[in-house]
Write a structure and sequence with these properties.
The complex is a heterodimer.
Chain A (H helix, E strand, L loop, with lengths): L1 H5 L5 H12 L2 H5 L1 H7 L3 H29 L3 H8 L5 H34 L8 H9 L2 H20 L1 H29 L4 H9 L9 H15 L5 H6 L9 H29 L3 H9 L2 H12 L6 H33 L4 H15 L1 H5 L1 H29 L1 H9 L9 H29 L13 H17 L1 H7 L5 H4 L1
Chain B lengths: L1 H25 L6
Classes of the chains: A mainly alpha, B mainly alpha.
């Protein structure tokens, strides 16, 4: 315990770098730009910013309040913050985070592979990037190798602990990530014809505000992108100083995430619009999917760009740093949970990374399985966020604000915070989750119930049901097994 | 002109708070 107590973020900058790295992931680079272009540019960004205040920032603060006050990961955090009978909610949060981690390591591996290709100069004019991507995606050994590499690097960093591993790496990788994004954005906005892309990002298309999809996509993107409800902020908060500022840090993380997303949009959208054969082709790329945009379209456009030989490695390296700093935070959730069971960091790291590799194998080998997992557990994050809201409501939202957040806050949270947590965020949860199910059923009216399809409502209900049954049955065991908050940790 | 106006507004409300809060946080250390 004495060693564990000493293992905390040495500086506020170290914690902020790790937390910003946690929030900024591949979604900022390959999903946010597409959403901006599809849902009204500036209008979408304004709604996205509103979502930070009504969902993401209050949730991040709630998570940080639980982690900082209980000094335990999500399982113990929910037990001590809400009560023994709610331990299963923390276990659900850990389970969802880990189930995402299993396939996210594969995605991190893809980014690594493309960084290697970019450094090798594989993206030459005329290269068939579609064939290149398909060859890689359906090559089991390559996928396995890069999945292993991603987990191995993450494991080494986490084995060294928070101060010696996570903090050191984040203090280098996060500024480097922002620098790479700035370089890529500067190159993109100075391309001939980049103006059209910039107009797609910044000029609001107000009519899109009438489309419910704009609001729902903006709120969902904010929830996924900031890491709100994942349990990541809760886990990192275990290692902060007792009087670390909650509100200011969470707003820095939220706005930092949006800053990175906007930089990525400025790097991606002008490139697509300036270099695609025509506007329809550019729009088609935006309406496609994340991997198509990154590994096929952009990889094919870089060779056409003056200086593209240098931008391609920088862009893909930015993706690796974004993915890796998020993967580190995700794996730490599993490690913290095992450490709360009494295991050492070293043993917990070996067990968690081993599980990530083995349980990530189906996603590494079968692309459809990965797509299924992304569909099922992406939506489940909203449920994890809702559980966090319930935890704060049971503890007393005003109590959390006045007793935990405000005493050490540079920027005090006013009554609006309590109103948002108590009334507005739960309504947002119901609308968002209901919408995802509505779309899933509307798009597959005859087959929506099928539990073994890639993207149906049935597969969500089936897999959520299994995990829910397991965590509820394990409630008492987990509550008992997780260590108590010690006197030393409290001091 | 329209593009420049909206770029300033959108980047201002996103990058502005990030830079301001980050600088403010870095100037103040966390009490033990």
């Amino acid at each position: 315990m004495a060693n564990e107590r000493r293992d905390e973020f040495a500086s506020r900058w170290g914690f902020l770098a790790a937390a910003i790295g946690m929030a900024v992931g591949t979604g900022n680079i390959w999903r946010f730009p597409r959403m901006v272009a599809l849902y009204g540019g500036g209008a979408y960004i304004l709604v996205y910013t509103l979502a930070l205040f009504l969902w993401s920032a209050p949730l991040l603060m709630s998570e940080m309040a639980i982690g900082r006050s209980t000094r335990l990961g999500p399982v113990g955090g929910f037990r001590d913050f809400v009560g023994r009978r709610s331990t299963w909610m923390g276990a659900w949060m850990v389970a969802v985070c880990m189930l995402i981690t299993f396939y996210y390591a594969v995605v991190t591996g893809w980014c690594m592979k493309y960084t290697f290709l970019a450094f090798q100069g594989a993206f030459k004019p005329g290269v068939d990037t579609q064939a290149l991507w398909n060859k890689f995606l359906y090559s089991p050994w390559q996928n396995l190798f890069f999945q292993f590499l991603a987990i191995f690097i993450t494991g080494i960093i986490l084995y060294k602990g928070i101060k010696g591993g996570v903090e050191k790496v984040s203090k280098f990788m996060v500024p480097a990530l922002f620098f790479f994004l700035i370089v890529a954005a500067l190159r993109a906005v100075t391309l001939h014809g980049a103006n059209l892309g910039l107009e797609y990002i910044f000029i609001p298309e107000w009519s899109k505000l009438k489309d419910p999809a704009t609001w729902l996509q903006a709120f969902t993107q904010s929830a996924w992108s900031t890491g709100a409800g994942w349990g990541l902020m809760l886990t990192y908060a275990v290692y902060v100083k007792k009087r670390e500022d909650i509100s200011q840090n969470c707003f820095i993380v939220g706005f930092g995430d949006q800053t990175a997303a906007l930089l990525a949009a400025m790097a991606v959208i002008p490139t697509i619009f300036a270099l695609s054969p025509d506007i329809e082709a550019a729009r088609g790329v935006m309406a496609g999917n994340n991997t198509g945009l990154t590994f096929i379209s952009l990889a094919g456009l870089f060779p056409q760009m003056p200086g593209g030989w240098a931008v391609a490695p920088i862009f893909f390296l930015a993706m690796v740093f974004a993915a890796l700093t998020s993967l580190i935070a995700q794996v730490e959730v599993g490690i913290r949970t095992l450490m709360d069971f009494g295991l050492s960091r070293q043993k917990s790291t070996i067990l968690t990374t081993g599980a990530c590799f083995i349980l990530g194998l189906p996603s590494a080998l079968i692309p459809a399985f990965l797509n299924n997992q992304d569909w099922v557990w992406g939506v489940a994050l909203l449920v994890s966020g809702f559980f966090t809201l319930l935890a704060v409501r049971r503890y007393g939202a005003d109590r959390v604000r006045q007793e935990i957040i405000n005493p050490s806050a540079d920027i005090k949270m006013r009554k609006w915070w309590t109103v948002v947590i108590t009334y507005i965020s739960p309504v947002i949860f119901i609308i968002l989750t209901g919408w995802w199910f509505y779309v899933a059923i509307k798009d597959n009216p005859k087959t929506w119930w099928q539990p073994f399809s890639v993207a149906t409502a049935g597969t969500i209900i089936f897999q959520w049901g299994i995990v829910l049954i397991i965590v509820i049955l394990a409630n008492n065991f987990l509550a008992k097994k997780t260590r108590l908050k010690t006197e030393e940790a409290e001091s | 002109m329209k593009l420049a106006f909206w770029m300033i507004i959108i980047l201002g409300i996103n990058w502005g708070p990030f830079i301001y809060l980050l600088v403010r946080a870095m100037r103040k250390s966390t009490p033990q």
